[in-house]
Every structure is written in C-alpha cells, then in structure tokens.
Specification:
The complex is a heterotrimer of chains A (about 475), B (about 450) and C (about 260). Chain A is of the alpha/beta class. In chain A, about 25% of the residues lie in helices and about 35% in strands. Chain A is globular, with a radius of gyration of 22 Å. Chain C is of the alpha/beta class and about 260 residues long. Chain C has a domain at about 10-100 and about 170-265: 3-Layer(aba) Sandwich (Rossmann fold), CATH 3.40.50. In chain C, the strands form 3 sheets. In chain C, strands 6-9-10-3-11-12 form a 6-stranded mixed sheet, sandwiched between helices. A 4-stranded antiparallel sheet of chain C has the order 2-1-4-5, with helices on one face. In chain C, strands 7-8 form a two-stranded antiparallel ribbon. In chain C, about 45% of the residues are buried. Classes of the chains: A alpha/beta (about 475), B alpha/beta (about 450), C alpha/beta (about 260). Strand 23 of chain A pairs antiparallel with strand 19 of chain B, so a sheet runs across the interface.
C-alpha cells in the first residue's frame, strides 16, 4: 500500500521549461552601487533611492533568522543577481506586440491573458522576472478610478500614493528578508481602490521566475480606501533549475474604514526534484493592516510548490470591529519543507480573526504550522478561532503545529484546535469496495480535507487549486 | 544589557563559590564525580534570558540579584511546630521531611520493613549503592540546563523511593519540603525508582512557614519499569515571595502508567519544566496541571511529552487562573517520533483571566513524525462563559456568586482527581479562598 | 429460494488465507447460486469476517491457496474496485468514517462509477438527488444524511443503514453482509432486514455473516453454514440456526468431534 501511495504522490513538474528571451542582467552581488544602479535604471525619485539605501543599511546590520523549522545551506547573497529584465525590443503598444515566445510561455502556463483573459473576466498584470510586461483591463478599471499597474509605473505616475504607503505595513527593517527586498525590489504590482468602489472583477497576477540564479524580489502594495473592496489573485510558477533560487517578496495591504481586501495565492514554484535538489526558497513577508473601522483582510493560500516555503501572511487588526482571516493549504512532498502560518495582532476593540490551516505531508517532507495570536491590552472583546489540521501520507514525513497565543486582555476569547489524520488503508479499501479507484479516492479525501479553504477561493482558482493538489498527490496508480 | 550579563554571571559565580564549603565531598566516588561534572557544566552555562525561546516570558533578572546561601539547620526544639504540614492521614502516610534542604529524621516516618525502600540519600547510599548510582542523575540531563546542573552539583541529600517488583503500596508517600528561613537557597532532589509491576502514590509537597524570600532549585527523576504505575501529586505552595525553578523527568517503560497532578499556587516566579519519555511500547501518561496565581506572580509551566515507541497514550490538561497582575505561561509540547505508530495523544490548555491586568501566554505544540497516529490539542483563553453565568442568574443566583462558583469549578476539576482526601480538602479550601471575590 | 436450475454465481474451492503470517482460512468450500440466501455462522475468531473481506479483496489478507470464481471469472486476480464493479458488495461490519467527504458526493461517485462500468448512464447531481431520496425512503433514512460526511458521527444503526442504502444503489449480484445485525436495536433491525428483502430477487444472491440467529428471523436463509477454525464444518437448512440458538456452538463441535472420532475408528 505504501508503494501505491508513493506512486500517487510522485508527479513530475509540469511547468519546467525555460523561455529563451534575452535578459538584461546585473552583475552578481549586492552593494550600494547595485542599489543605485537599480534605482537609476528604473528612473526613480530620490525618496525611493533613500528608502532603498535605508533598508540596505538595516539589512547589513541584521543576521538571517534561525528559529524556523526548515534546513537549507547558507545562502550566498553576493552570488545572486539582483536585477534581471527582459530586454524590451521596442515599446509595446498592444498585446499583439508582446514577445510571442513570452505569450507561448503564458499559454503553456494556462495564464488567461489576451482574449482568454477577457472571456474569463480576469485582468492580469504579468510579472516576468520582475518587470511588468503587459497589463490588461487597465482602461476598464480606470473608468471606476481603480489603479492597477506595476509598482514601477505607480512610482512614476502616482508617487504620492506610493510614498505614503510603501513600508507603512512592513517597515524597511522589519526582518532580514523584508529589508533585503526593500533594498533591491525590482517590480511588483500596485493596486489602489478609491473610496466606495467595489472592484468589478478579480485582479490577478502571475509571477514567474525565469532566469537561472536571479533572485526575485517583487513588491506588492494594495490600498483599499474607505468602503472599497477588492479580490486579488496571485499565481506562481517557476521553471526547473538545479540551483536553488531565492524568492523574497513583500506584500503590503492597507484597508481603511469599511474596506475589504481578499488576497488569494496559489503557489506552485518548482519544488526541487525527488531527491531534494533544486527548487525555490520562498521567503515572503505578507502583511495586511486593517486600519479602519469594520475593515477586513482575508488571506487564502494554497502552497504546493517551492523547496522551502516560509511565510506568515498576517493581519494587524487596528480598526475597531476589524476582521482578519487566514485560510491555508500547504502540501509538501519529497524533500520539501514548509514553515507557514499567520499572525493575528488584535489591537482594536471587537476585532475578530479566524485561522484555518490544513497541512498535507508526503514523502520525506516536513510541514509546520506556526501562528501567533496576540491580544493587546487595548483589544476589548477580541475573538479568535484557530483550527489546524495535518494529514500525513507515509511514515517518512513530519507535521508540526506551533501556535503561539498571547493574551493581554481578559475580555478576549481565544480558541485553538488541532488534529492529525491520515489516509488510511481501510478508507481506500472502503472506496474500492464501492468501485472507486485509489486515485479518485485520494483526491476526494484530500479535497474533503481542504474544503474549508477551497471554499474561500474564487471559482477559477478553486478549480486550479484542486487540479494542482491532484498533480501533486495523485499521478498514475501502479 | 552588559550590566545584566554581568549580574547573571555573578549569580552563578556566587553560588559556585560556596560549592566547596557546603557540598563536602562524600566518600562515594561516583557521586563526587557526578557533582563535579555538573559543576563543570554550571561554569560553562549562562543564566537564561528572555532572548531564549524557552525563557521568552520568564524574566529571571530579579532572581539573578539574589544569590542566597544554603540554610542553616533548623532549631531542633521547634520541630513540633512543623507537624501542621503533615496530612491528616499522617498515621497512615509514609513521610520524608526536608527542612530548607536538610533531611529531618525526627519528623519523617518510614517503613522499616523491606517492602519498600525509602529514605534520604545519605542513609541509603551504602546499602543500595547499585540501584541509586544507576539511576540518580541519569534522567535529568544537566549538560544544557543551568538549573538542573546547579541542583546536581549541589546534591547533598535526596528523597529516595524504591519500589521493588510487584509491590503495591496503598499508603501515600509524602515527600515534604518545608522552607523556614529567609534569604536561603535550597536544592531539593527526588529519586523514584518503580520496578516492574509496582504501584504507589507519591506526594511531592513544597510548603513555607512564612512569607519569606527564598530560592528553590528542585529536580525530580522518576523511573517506571514495565507495567509500573505511579500517581504523583506535586504541590507547590511556596511563599508568594519565593522563587522556585523545578525540573521533573519521567521515564516510562512498556505498559507503565504515570498519572501526575501538578498544582502551582506559590512563588513570585516559578518555573516547572517536565519531560515525560514514553520509552516503552504501550506506555501511558495522564498529566493535569492547575495554576492559580494573583498579585505580581508569574508561573511558567513547560511540559514535553515524548512518544518514542508505538501504542503510547498521553492525556494532558493544563488550567490556569490568573488574577491581579499575574502572568501565566504554558508551553506544552507533544512529540511523536518516527515509528511511534498508533500513538494516541490529546492535550488541552484552558486559561481564565480574572482581571484586565492579568496575562496569559500559551503555546501548545505538536510535532508528529509518524502517520498512523491520533493527536489533537486545543487551547482556550478567555473569561467565564457568559451563558453559564446567565444560566445561574436566571435561577436566582447573584452575578458575583455565579462568578465565584464558576471560577472555583474551573480549577476544582483538576483537584477533584486527587485521591488523598485530606490533601484534596486542603487544596479545595485554598482554591475556594482565592477565587471568592466579594 | 433454491432452484437447481439457476446458474452458479460463486464457487469457492479450498480457500486458504492469512493475515500477517497467521493462517485464518484453512480450506473454505462454498457454492452460491443465483437467487439463494446463505448464512455463515460461527463464533468470534472462526474466520467468517475474514472470509467476507477476502472475497471483497481486502489488501490486508493474503490468499495462499485455493480458487474463487465469480460469475465464471477468476475473482482473486481482480482489484477490489473491479470486484465491486463486477457486482460484489460488502456491507462492512465497521463502516469506515471519511471526514470531509460528503455522503451525497461519495454515493454519487460510487453509483456513477458502477453505472459507467456497466455501460449505463451516469446521473447528474440533481437526478441523483431524486434517485437517492427514493432509495432512502426504503430504509426510512433522514435526508440529512446526504449532507454529512461519510459515516462520520453516525450511530451504529445509522452506519448500517447507510451500508444497505449503498447496496440499494449499486444493485450487486452478490451482497455479503458482515455482521450487519450487530449494534442494531430491534426497530433498526426490522428496517434493515426489510430493505434487504426488497432487494433480493432471482438474479442475485446474499451471504449473511452473523453470530446470532436474530437476523435470520427476518431474512430467512436457504442454507446455514457453520464456520469453525477457518473451515465450514457443517451445512444445513435454515433450521440449523435455530438448533444452534438452543444448543450453542459446543453442540456442533461435539457433533463434529464425534464424527471425526467415528471416522478415525
């Protein structure tokens, strides 16, 4: 039976191909000159250069964190190229002029760009090795006053907005990787929803790391003004390389009074091969500030890729009655490692948070949930409910749960539950006795296990997530 | 920061300086060796700081200022006053009494028959050298733990209980540690060896005559051989000014069963670290903790349940009531090692905050490396259940009475499981007194 | 209903099986024809539940000798799901709980998989809903069961009814009911038994594995077999069960012992 399960969980990486595009790559290494070069190449205002330099200075004084439950060889930060942009052959006026090779890449990935994007009703801001290449639906969004563009464009066109919010949720010296990102980020997405506007469609971005040895440091900033709401989707794939690539993104969300931001991620970066060679290091800082009264920030993530996933999408619940949510599925196989979870920092009165985490471990992988719920003395009547379930497939993997609960206000109610289950031989036999094969049975059990999280995803994403999990854990039987 | 580091080291240094004068070397070579090894570790180790994950919430800088000497012998003519700490079943209890760390034979009551072997280390070490030397210091690792190392370096005496094969003792064994003197440090030590199939109830009881400031560094080691069963009630009712740093390690062989109840009422800063190794197939443990603190008290409970072999079972409930500006810390880890299949583990932590100044930090942890297991944990922090208060009020009970009743019930649940009637009654009374707010 | 002309559905010859190196079945012989109801009785540990699981292809059991043909096909070489699709149904003694998977979803997938393999039409969720509700009435089951996870939190009786519901949906050629009566109160037993009776016809067959006579008051067998130490030691008509109820299993054993002593003389 264990051999059967082994087969079920072994599935080659589907997105492993490299696009042949001439890249404009900075020399390896990090110093002040490189940062000045990035800033100059991007024609940035002085305040942004000094933001970067401030971050770099902080970074120099920091050491890599050691507390996480993941193991990897020391990263040589001087052996990474901090800038890689596809060389624009000419200025793009329309989608037709986008490099056909690039379009084919997206096609292979199934990115609903171009006409397909219109049919799917999805606006896609495509990030290709850090530089935004094409943005669709911009005009349609502009009609209602929504700004959705690359962050470089936003720096040029809306500098006051970027300056006001950049680093306001994740300060430049927040942590080692956030400081690094703040110093060297090359591109990312910017989204601004003006007062009272409900974004008419899901906004979507696909990230893809292409050039071998190039770190990806995108920066995302989403602001929802009073009464605004937006649902933002992020999908990630990367081709396969034998050296590990670092991905250290920063995502900042700001929700003002009565605003709502829903941020969904399906992450399927290259996880390394079945021996654990290669794969992406996904060290990401994601944080939302529920600043206004009745604001709501919701994170949903399906993490199936990367050699190491290490991220804690968090909510700072500052506004009265604000709500934070975290729904997560993390699947690890072979030698993958994941240490992921969330932080819910309750500051305002009557703040509420919900955490639902589902970890699935197979092969030799190791998956940890790590979460913090902190109720500050000011957070009267705060409520938190956390549920963390683990499923183990095989006896070579591990699943850990580390919830930190800090309560400094006696009106709080904090509840945490965790359980472990497995796909048992008896369950599979029961299915088989009713005519249902192992592959379908595993898929059904896993989807049932993850149901509460998948329900949070937009329809198209839920379908993609279900498929991804099937790829990851099913494959061909026998 | 620099100052703090200095005073931390001062604390260790000043204790170590006294080592030579107090811990006279015995004529038992292995014990001398054990103590000097431990001293060697003490010299290498540093005082924990809140920068260390295991001590994040427990700041020992106030302890570091108090390097008290060991106590002098208690005046013999006042011994009779201390009989009030005996259980009312005193006729039927076995008792080993230590005053400020020194064994007092006059107050102790031991079995003269050979059915069980109990006594202090000095009186048993020659007659039972073999069994004591093969157990003492073998479980409580001191290489990385300053306080275990300190206690081991300072072993002068030890409460020893050895239960021979298949011996079942109905009378409780009361290990009574009384603190009488202010500004002293004591190093209580317990060793329990339960041979296969034996069964006993052990009460490890820390009490104080006055609201003194004193420091206790205690260590207890329990060995349970195959099918042995131990009920262990650990009661820490030190002075509210005291410091108590305790380490307890339990080793469980196949099919053995450890049932522990740990009660924490006293000390301004207390730390109870417990490690339970389920090292044999089918071993089982059930641990219940209850902490009731107020004022500026800080009580830190760290437990680690280590499932090493298949078919182990563990049950844990930890409850904490924090009143005043008290601070409760709970860190409960459950580890299921590879091949510890069919482990069945459930852990629950419940905390109650009675005031807006009180604070709780809880961190349950599950680390699982076997797939065929049943594990769960849960944690809640909050106030009394409003529905329950309403229900009582709807039956005509005033709100304050309803609150008192429910607060008492919250802690009473753990005390309920103590099977020694007089001890249970004493503890119930304390909880009742402390939870009744007018 | 015994009809000498009906075709043979199941032919078990000298079946030996073991679980983790312990031999449980030590030469079982059994022939089941269409339209027949067989009861297999025996003490706990006699091997009757193992026999049921081996027929369904439980991976925990290893067949070491013997043959089983079902519907003129070698059964032992088939995967469990193929046996199911070919018409073997096992009502589990302890139905498995599957958290997170809705009962309705599970039932529909099982139904459609079987329909497909028989070249029949699948039902969409709406059609299936009507269909399953109808079948549920047969077993006096509350429709709430459809929305709950498979068997999770079901009482013993609810689980057994859910098993018979699946039998009603899948319309097997051979249904093996493993201790379906255990854990049922008298009302539930009556409902389950009448459900089973409604599902029997001249083209299918049933094997009842049971410890007690109780169920046989409601589902009347054509044959009663007594299993002991991994073999069928006695086969007779329905009255055998009643005699067993009166005299106990020792009576059979004594009877057998007498016979074997006789034969050795």
């Amino acid at each position: 039976m264990s051999a059967l399960l082994q087969n079920l969980v072994n599935q080659p990486y589907k997105h492993g191909f490299v696009t042949e595009i001439e890249s404009d790559i900075a020399p390896k290494g990090l110093n002040e000159e490189i940062i000045r070069m990035i800033s100059a190449k991007k024609n940035e205002p002085d305040w942004l250069l000094s933001f970067r330099l401030r971050a770099y200075e902080k970074w120099l004084s920091m050491t890599e964190p050691q507390w996480q439950n993941v193991k990897y060889p020391k990263i040589d930060f001087q052996d990474i190229s901090y800038y890689s942009a596809p060389k624009p052959k000419k200025k793009l006026a329309s989608m037709d002029e986008v490099d056909p090779e690039l379009l084919r890449t997206f096609e292979k990935l199934g990115v609903p760009l171009h006409e397909r994007a219109a049919l799917a009703g999805v606006a896609v801001d495509v990030i290709f090795d850090s530089v935004s290449v094409a943005t669709t639906f911009k005009e349609k969004l502009a009609e209602v006053g929504i700004i959705f563009c690359s962050i470089s464009e936003a720096v040029q066109n809306y500098p006051e907005l970027v300056q006001k919010y950049l680093g306001s949720v994740v300060p430049v010296g927040d942590n080692f990787y956030a400081a690094l990102n703040s110093a060297v980020f090359t591109d990312g997405s910017f989204c601004y929803i003006p007062e009272g506007v409900k974004c008419p469609m899901d906004l979507s971005t696909y990230f893809r790391i292409n050039t071998e040895g190039s770190g990806q440091f995108e920066r995302t900033l989403i602001i929802a003004e009073n009464g605004a709401s937006v649902s933002y989707l992020e999908g990630c794939t990367a081709p396969r390389f034998d050296t590990n690539q670092l991905h250290a993104a920063v995502v900042e969300l700001v929700a003002l009074d009565n605003a709502e931001i829903k941020y969904s991620t399906v992450q399927n970066w290259y996880a390394g091969d079945e021996k654990g060679i290669g794969g992406i290091y996904n060290f990401v800082t994601k944080r939302g500030l529920a600043k206004g009264i009745n604001s709501r920030i919701s994170w949903t993530q399906v993490e199936t890729g990367s050699a190491i996933t290490w991220k804690y999408p968090s909510c700072i619940l500052r506004g009265e009655n604000s709500v934070g949510e975290f729904y997560s599925v993390a699947v690890t196989n072979n030698y993958q490692q994941a240490d992921t979870g969330t932080k819910m920092i309750h500051i305002g009165k009557n703040t509420r948070s919900t955490i639902v985490s589902k970890g699935i471990s197979a092969g030799h992988s190791n998956s940890s949930y790590r979460g913090l719920v902190r109720i500050a003395p000011t957070a009267e009547n705060a409520r938190n409910y956390s549920q963390c379930d683990s499923m183990l497939i095989g006896d070579q993997c591990g699943a850990n749960t580390f919830p930190y609960i800090q309560v400094h206000n006696n009106t709080a109610v904090v509840e945490h539950e965790a359980s472990t289950s497995k796909i048992g031989e008896d369950q599979l036999f029961y299915f088989a006795q009713r005519g249902i094969g192992a592959e379908e049975a595993v898929s059904m059990i896993i989807n049932g296990f993850c149901k509460e999280v998948f329900q949070q995803l937009p329809m198209e994403f839920a379908v993609e997530a279900t498929k991804l999990l099937s790829f990851k854990l099913e494959g061909s039987v026998g | 920061m620099t100052l703090m580091t200095l005073s931390n080291n001062d604390y260790i240094n000043s204790l170590v300086e006294r080592w030579g004068s107090y811990s006279n070397s015995t004529n038992v070579a292995w014990l001398n060796q054990l103590r000097s090894e431990a001293l060697h570790c003490v010299n290498k180790l540093r005082m924990p700081t809140t920068h260390m994950e295991a001590w994040r919430f427990t700041d020992l800088s106030s302890l570091a200022k108090l390097s008290f000497p060991e106590a002098l012998l208690f005046p013999r003519d006042q011994l009779s006053e201390l009989a009030r700490f005996f259980l009312s079943e005193s006729e039927s209890e076995y008792r080993l009494v230590f005053i400020d760390g020194h064994y007092v034979a006059e107050l102790s009551q031991i079995d003269s028959s050979e059915k069980i072997i109990q006594g202090n280390l000095s009186s048993l070490i020659l007659s039972h050298n073999q069994i004591i030397s093969s157990h003492l210091g073998k479980l409580a690792e001191f290489q990385d733990d300053l306080f275990t190392a300190l206690n081991t370096a300072f072993i002068q005496d030890c409460a020893c209980v050895i239960l021979p094969r298949n011996v079942s003792i109905a009378r409780p064994i009361h290990l009574l540690f009384i603190s009488t003197q202010s500004e002293t440090t004591s190093y209580p030590r317990c060793l329990v060896v339960a041979e296969s199939g034996s069964h006993a109830t052990i009460i490890e009881d820390y009490v104080a005559t006055n609201e003194n400031v004193y420091v206790t560094h205690s260590v207890a080691e329990f060995f349970l051989a195959d099918s042995a069963k131990i009920n262990h009630y650990r009661i820490q009712r030190d002075s509210n000014q005291a410091f108590h740093i305790a380490n307890h390690v339990v080793s469980l062989s196949a099919s053995s069963y450890y049932a522990g109840v740990n009660i924490t009422f006293g000390a301004q800063i207390s730390r109870f670290s417990q490690r339970i190794e389920l090292g044999g197939e089918g071993a089982e443990c059930s641990i219940e903790g209850f902490t009731l603190i107020t004022g500026q008290q800080l009580a830190d409970t760290h437990t680690f349940i280590d499932h090493m072999k298949p078919q182990g079972k563990s049950r844990q409930i930890h409850k904490c009531i924090a009143d005043g500006s008290a601070h409760g810390v709970f860190n409960g880890a459950v580890m299921v090692r590879p091949h510890a299949q069919q482990t069945d583990s459930a852990q629950m932590s419940r905390s109650l905050l009675l005031t807006d100044k009180a604070r709780i930090d809880a961190k349950p942890q599950l680390e699982i490396f076997a797939d065929n297991v049943k594990c769960s944990h849960g944690a809640t922090v909050g106030q009394l259940n409003k529905e329950e208060i309403f229900y009582l009020r709807s039956r005509g009970i005033s709100e304050s009475v309803a609150r008192n009743l429910l607060t008492y019930a919250f802690g009473g649940e753990v005390i309920e499981h103590i099977a020694v009637p007089s001890l249970k009654a004493q503890l119930e009374e304390t909880v009742l007194l402390r939870t009744q707010i007018a | 209903m015994i009809d000498q002309n009906s075709k043979t559905l199941l032919e078990v010859r000298d079946l030996h099986a073991k679980v983790s190196d312990v031999e449980i079945l030590k030469g079982v012989n059994l022939t089941v024809k269409c339209g027949e109801i067989h009861a297999i009785m025996g003490l706990n540990g006699s091997g009757k539940s193992t026999f049921a699981k081996v027929l369904a292809g439980h991976p925990g059991y290893q067949v070491t000798a013997g043959s089983v043909s079902f519907d003129n096909q070698d059964l032992l070489s088939l995967e469990p799901e193929v046996r199911s699709r070919n018409g073997i149904f096992l009502a589990f003694q302890y139905p498995i709980e599957i958290p997170g998977v809705a009962n309705s979803q599970f039932l529909r997938l099982a139904y459609n998989t079987n329909q497909l393999s028989r070249g029949k039409e699948e039902l969409d969720p709406l059609e299936f809903d009507d269909f399953v509700r109808e079948k549920m009435q047969l077993l006096e089951m509350n429709v709430d069961f459809l929305d709950r996870s498979v068997n999770e939190g079901f009482s013993g009786g609810e689980k057994k009814r859910n098993e018979i519901l699946q039998m009603a949906l899948l319309e097997p050629k051979l249904a093996i009911l493993d201790e379906t009566d255990s854990g049922l109160d008298i009302d539930a037993l009556r409902i389950v038994a009448s459900g089973v009776n409604k599902l029997t016809n001249k083209d299918n067959a049933i094997i009842l594995v049971t410890h007690y006579q109780r169920l046989l008051d409601y589902i009347v067998p054509d044959y009663v077999h007594i299993m002991e130490s991994g073999r069928i030691i006695k086969t007779s008509g329905k009255d055998l069960a009643k005699e067993l109820e009166v005299h106990g299993y020792d009576w059979i054993k004594a009877d057998q012992l007498a016979k074997s002593t006789e034969s050795s003389i």
